[in-house]
Amino acid sequence: MAALPVLRLPHPVLKRVTKPVASIGREERRLADDLLETMAASPACVGLAANQVGFDVRAFCVDVTGHKKADSCHGAFVLFNPVVVASAHPVAAREGCMSVPDLTGNVSRASEVVVRGLAPDGRERVIEADAFEARAILHEIDHLDGLLFLDRVDSFATDVFRRRRYR
Q1: Which residues pair with 110 in a beta bridge?
Q2: Which residues are catalytic?
Q3: Which of 82, 90, 145, 167 is within CB 3.0–4.6 Å of 117 for a Cys-Cys bond?
Q4: Whole-structure pTM over 0.90, yes or no?
């Protein structure tokens, strides 16, 4: 396992649609471990997509454990080949991203989501999430589709902000 460097905009891999994995093997399990380790080593990080660390595959991790805005919480998990099965009740809220570290933005996303994918053990997993966990999952799936939160803001003039830095 290793914490990997996170790519930043304008790196071209961040704007490409990722490829599905054919099966879960040793390399995919290692990637899952590396995603989780990178997320854990990154302060305030609640999710990370494979392309953010240079892998062109449909995989992401999320962990909203202990986050004040989280209602549902499935702990730390990785999904390969995620598919949104259902989503409802869009809500606008502020988002940030490790690949766009200096900005945040107001983005409307479903506050309830059902997602299906493969766990690192190769078994199908279905996750029903709401509130902040739903937002984090959808943010990471956007990465896999070559989208950043900046692609979802209504107005750069009113919905994008410089990130505050605390010392």
Answers
A1: 90
A2: 140
A3: 82
A4: yes
